[in-house]
Structure formats: C-alpha cells, structure tokens
Specification:
By secondary structure, the protein is α/β, with parallel strands linked by helices. Helix content is about 50%, strand content about 15%. The chain has two domains: about 220 residues, Alpha-Beta Complex (Spore Coat Polysaccharide Biosynthesis Protein SpsA, Chain A), CATH 3.90.550; about 70 residues. The protein has a seven-stranded mixed β-sheet with strand order 3-2-1-4-7-5-8, sandwiched between helices. Helix 5 packs parallel to helix 8, helix 8 crosses helix 9 and helix 9 runs antiparallel to helix 10.
C-alpha cells in the first residue's frame, strides 16, 4: 500500500492512530469517533474478525486493513507500523479497540515526542496520576511479575510494560524491528528500543476494565506467553541469575537432605539409600546449573567485549 491516507497540512506533524481489531463491533465505532478528534487518520487492522467490525470501522471514517486469518496482536501491530511508515507518519498512536483506553489522553502521549524528549511514550497505569478501573487483583499481580522480569532483562525500569496505549516517533517507526506475532511483541519492542538507544517515557493514564468486553486474551494464556518470553530473554542476557541462583538453591537443598539422612541413621542394619541418592542427585543438578550459568555469563561478557572493541557498539 503506497497510497496516502489523507492530505497532510504543511508544517504540521502527521499523526496516525492504529487499532488492532478482532470482533469489536460493540465498541469500535465509539472508539474511532473519540480517537478521530486527536489524530489525522485512524487505521484499523481487522485481524480475521467474523462480525461487522470492519464494516462499522469504515462507516466511521477509519481506513481498514484486513488480515485473512487471525494473526494475533503482534501481527496486527506489524501491519499498523507498515501503514504508518508508508504514509510518512510523524507520530503513531496505538490503542485498543475495546474502549479500555481514553483517547482524550492522546495529547499527553504525544507531548514528549513533540518536545523531543522521547521516541516511545507509554500510557502507564502504575505511575503517579495513572489508574486502572475495576482491574482484577490477579491481573494486576500478573502484570507486576511480567514487568519485573522484563526490567531485569532490559534494565529500563518501566512501570507498565503491558500497556498497549503507546506513542511512537518517526525515529522509532523507522528503526524498530520485531518478529513476534503474539502478545510477546509488547516486550520485544522494548528490547529493540534499548539496543537502539531509543528514549522511552511513561505518562499517566487511566485504563478501564469495566468495558463491555475487555481484553479478549485470557489472563492465563496472555500472562504465560509473555512471562515465558521475558524469562527466555532474561536467561539469554543474565544466565547466571536464571540458572546459577536456582542451582545454588538446589545445592543447598541437596546438602540439607543429605545431612538429614546421615543424622537419622539409627542403626547400620536399617540404612536406606533412597534419601541419600535423592540428595546427591539434587546436589549434582544444582552444581550443574551453577556451572552452566557461570560459563554462559562469562561467554556473554567476552562476546560483548569483543563486539564493543570491534564495532564500538555497547
């Protein structure tokens, strides 16, 4: 697609809003009308919907890109980025189609980009001024765990890694690259942004959970896929933390079980080898994990040093 979506105004930033859409006929019209007040064009990616979402979106003035089958959140976002790049967007806003995000907060999201302070801006629930209406406690806990794991890997210190309400500068649009088709994309973007030294900022927003449908992703499937990605990424960047510390815990457990087995031997004829073998296996596994963590951490440090010396990239 190389056709311009609209005629840009001279000396004015081109702002596009992108909405992933999957069976959102109940809310999409309202979201588009509210969003259109703050952007030049709304682009909806119909990710294989079986209802009237696409038809309603077009009637409300949105440009609709269609996927023949459901690719997932990451797949929809890839299409949104491609459309924004081809139409020379200065700023891309991403938000959900279910009404959880408040389009009236768009000016606050784009302000740091217009001021040259950030390349990526996150509408955050968990900083001062932010909030989440009727958010279940288990979901909040899950987001906190995912965010903690992500920050251990990326060292960005982001408070709300799972907010889909984001703004991207032209610089970010041109430089960001990602592969994930699912919800893991929410973390992959931050990893790529860190590697490319893109500035990230959070601004407060309120995200609602009392909307008609809410997220179509279940807390378990959503959380498991993202947490798995976060832990895999963490194991690649900090292998000693992921492998060495659990290994130390297993070694300590094995030692404690071995001592207990020795101390409970009352009579030489009643000796059993079961507890002792279990303790030995646990201890060996612990030592193996510690050794693996140390080797991988050392290899990563050496490789990083070689890259810095050869290419000057840190």
């Amino acid at each position: 697609m190389g056709v311009t979506l609209y005629e840009p105004i001279a000396n004015q930033p081109v702002i596009i809003a992108g909405l992933p859409m999957y069976n959102e006929e109940e809310t999409i019209g309202t979201v588009i009308r509210r969003t259109s007040k703050f952007v030049d064009q709304v682009v909806c990616v119909d990710d294989g919907s079986s209802d009237s979402s696409a038809r309603i979106a077009e009637k409300c003035g949105a440009v609709v890109e269609r996927h023949r089958f459901n690719r997932g959140y990451g797949g929809a976002l890839k299409t949104i980025f491609n459309v924004a790049r081809k139409n020379n967007a200065d700023i891309l806003i991403t938000l959900d189609s279910d009404g959880q995000h408040n389009p009236a907060d768009i000016p606050a999201l784009i302000e740091p980009i217009l001021a040259g302070e950030a390349d990526i801006v996150i509408g955050s629930r968990f900083i001062d001024g932010g909030n989440s209406v009727d958010m279940p406690a288990y979901r909040k806990l899950g987001i906190k765990v995912i965010t903690a794991a992500s920050n251990l890997s990326s060292e960005l210190g982001i408070k709300d890694t799972q907010s889909g309400f984001r703004a991207f500068s032209r610089n970010a649009l041109e430089r960001l690259r990602f592969n994930s088709e699912g919800m893991e994309l929410s973390l992959e973007i931050f990893e790529d942004a860190r590697e490319k030294n893109l500035a990230i900022k959070e601004v407060p927003t309120v995200i609602r959970y009392d909307v008609p449908k809410g997220s179509r992703f279940t807390a378990i499937s959503h959380g498991f896929s993202i947490l798995s990605y976060a832990m895999i990424s963490l194991s690649q960047k900090k292998p000693f933390l992921v492998l060495g510390l659990p290994g130390a815990g297993l070694l300590a457990t094995g030692a404690a079980m071995g001592m207990r087995a020795i101390n409970t031997v009352g009579d030489i004829t009643d000796v059993t080898v079961g507890p002792g073998l279990t303790a030995a296996w646990i201890g060996v596994l612990g030592i193996s994990l510690i050794a693996t963590g140390v080797v991988l951490q050392s290899a990563r440090s050496i490789l990083r040093l070689l890259i810095v010396n050869e290419f000057g990239i840190d």
